Amino acid sequence: MKLSSISTITAIASAVIIAGCASHKATPITAKDLQAHRWVLTTVDKKAVKTDPTSTQPFIQFDDTMMASGNASCNDFFGKAKLDKNRLLLDKLALTMKLCSDDIMKQEQMIHRSLSSWTDLSLAKETLTIKTPKHTLVYQADNTTEAKQ
Q: Is the model's pTM score more than 0.90?
């Protein structure tokens, strides 16, 4: 009988711990979190971002109205950012139309497609991760350059 009581208490304690872990949600990312930095893209799908002499290091930044602007490797872009429960969408994305090498253009198109649909966001210290069903983009805060507001 005593063993049953200990087993029951252990089972209840385990259930409470598991339920607590399962219900733990990420801290919501706010507009202020995104506006605080210029975010430089460092990896795409765990591979270093491609650059060449004709390209720019991809980045994104957000102003105080959540207008996003940046560069996706070759072309500048801007659009209205929508943030909802750690999900991001750049609505009505507009971009310049310069031509770069094939590898850079493919990377840029993937970035545009990713940012133009709802993505999952996570923020850990100064690393912003944007995930789509197909790609993971990892941005690092660039504290050497102030975000243009």
A: no
Helix ranges restricted to H, the chain: 2-23, 31-35, 102-115
What single-letter DSSP state applies at residue 99? -
Using CB atoms within 10 Å of the CB of residue 119, give its burial: 0 to 12 exposed, 13 to 18 middle, 19+ buried.
buried
What was the pLDDT predicted at 25?
57
Confidence of residue 30 (pLDDT cuts 50, 70, 90): very high
Amino acid at position 119, single letter: T
At residue 62, φ and ψ (nearest 5 deg) are -130, 130
Q: Using the predicted structure, report yes or no on whether residue 117 has a pLDDT greater than 60.
A: yes
